[in-house]
Amino acid sequence: HIQPKILMKDFSKFGLIYLANVGGTILFYPTRVVINLVATSNDDEESPTIHNSSGVLGILDGEGDDDGREEVNPPSSASAARALEASLAEPVPSSSHIAIIIQTNFQLCAYTTSQLHVSMLGLFCDVQSFRRLSNVVFYHITRDSVKGAFKLGIKAKQILRFLKMHAHPRLHSSDHPLVPTNVEDQIRLWNRERKRVQFEEIYIHQCQNAQEFQAVVAYAQDRGAFSWSDGNKLRVYVKYVGAEVVVSFARRWRSWAAQRRARESEGRMRQSAYS
Asked: Which of 52, 119, 237, 273 has its CA 20 to 30 A from that of 185?
C-alpha cells in the first residue's frame, strides 16, 4: 500500500502534477502532460475537451472559458502525448539502447533498461531524484550532482557530448536543440565556478632589508616570476618555475651589498685615521 503523499511526490517527479505550498497547505495541480494523456484517451474525438467544475485549470493556464471548460489543442501537445503512449507500448528496448530527453526544468528522461546506463547517468545526476518505470528512468540534474562529477574527473564537455550523442531520435529530426540552451549554459557556468581560484606553486624569499626587498621585487617582475609581496615582513612570493634565478640574483645582490658596505667602512676608517 502506497501512501498518498509518497505517490504525489512520485507523480511530481514524473512531471504529472505540480505541488505548491499555499498558506501552509500543500496543493497539487495536474500538468499539461497528464491533461493531454487524459484528453487523448478517446481516439474517436477529434477535438477532446476537459471539463473542470471549479475552473482552476483554466485560470492557471489563462485559457479557461466562463463555464469552466478548457480546450486542449491536439496538434502540438496531444501529438506528443500520443507519441509517449506509442513509445511505452513498444517492446522493451535492448540493453544497448538509450534515448535521452532533457527538459528545461533540468529533468532528465532516459529510455533504457541497462543498469550500466542508469549508473552512468547517476555520475552527474541527483541519485535522490531517481524514479523508474518499466523502460524509462527519471533524474534531475543539479549543481551538486554536476560538481560531484567534476570531482571524479568528468568534464563539462564530456557530459554535454554524452547527452547530445544519446539524445532521443525525435530530437534529431526536429528543430529543438538536443540539450536545452539554459541547461547547457548552466552546466558550463558550473564548470567555470571551479576556475575562480587557480592554484600555483610558489617560493617564498625572505629579504634581509628594505633595499634587498625592492631589488628582488623589481628583478622578479622583470623576469615574469613575481607573484606577490609583503612589504611589512619583507617577503617576496615568486613562481616556483622562476625561483632559482630569483634566488641566484638575491645571493649576488647580498654579495655586492656586503662588498659595498666593506668599502664604505674602510673609507670611513681611513678618514678617521687622517683626521
From this structure: 119
